[in-house]
Amino acid sequence: MAIRNIRELGDEVLTKKCKMVTEMTPRNKELIEDMLETMYEAGGVGLAAPQVGVLKRIVVIDVTGEDPHILINPRIVESSGEQTGQEGCLSLPGKSGQVTRPNYVKAVALDVNMREFELEGTELLARAICHELDHLEGHMYVEKVEGPLQDVTEEEV
Ligand code: NI
Predict the structure, then answer these.
(1) Active-site option among 12, 37, 87, 132
(2) Which of 15, 86, 90, 104 is the most buried (most CB within 10 A)?
């Protein structure tokens, strides 16, 4: 496993749409392991492949530090409610901004064995799922921020 370099806002790779993953190759497995290690090392709660410069539809999320979720080709199939709160991103370290997200989301994704599963989340997990899926479309939370960015470190995803 290896720590990968996290791309920051302004890097073109963060504006591109990611490609579907069609098979679990050793290269993809290594990418996933590296993404988890890179996320934990950076103290984040989520990381999307484009943040390490890879345009594949893969995200890792762990909002508690002991419950890693690996989502391949994820899509949100259900969402409800609303939450407004501070959100940060490992690609914009040391900043946060207010973003409104659904308070509940259900995602369908493939796991490392390319088997479909569902992941339901509320509050921070719901926020992280939405945030990471935006990365796969080439979007950053700063496009949705309400008001100014602050020099506050929230959970970064
Ligand atoms: Ni992010």
Answers:
(1) 132
(2) 90
Instruction: Give pLDDT, residue 1.
Output: 76
Amino acid identity, residue 11? Answer: D
Q: Which residues surround ligand 1, an ion (CB under 5 A)?
A: 89, 157
CB atoms < 10 A from the CB of 15, how many? Answer: 13
Residue length of the chain: 157
Has 41 been annotated as catalytic?
A: no
Percent of the chain with pLDDT over 90: 95
**CA–centroid distance, residue 45 to ligand 1 (Å):** 9
Q: What pLDDT shows up at residue 152?
A: 75
C-alpha distances in Å from residue 59, one per residue of 21, 55, 98, 151: 11, 11, 22, 26
In sequence order, the 6+-apart residues with CB closer than 8 A to the CB of 140 are 9, 14, 89, 91, 92, 134
pTM greater than the 0.85 cutoff:
yes
Q: How far is the CA of 24 from the centre of ligand 1 (A)?
A: 24
- Distance of CA 90 from the midpoint of ligand 1 (Å): 5
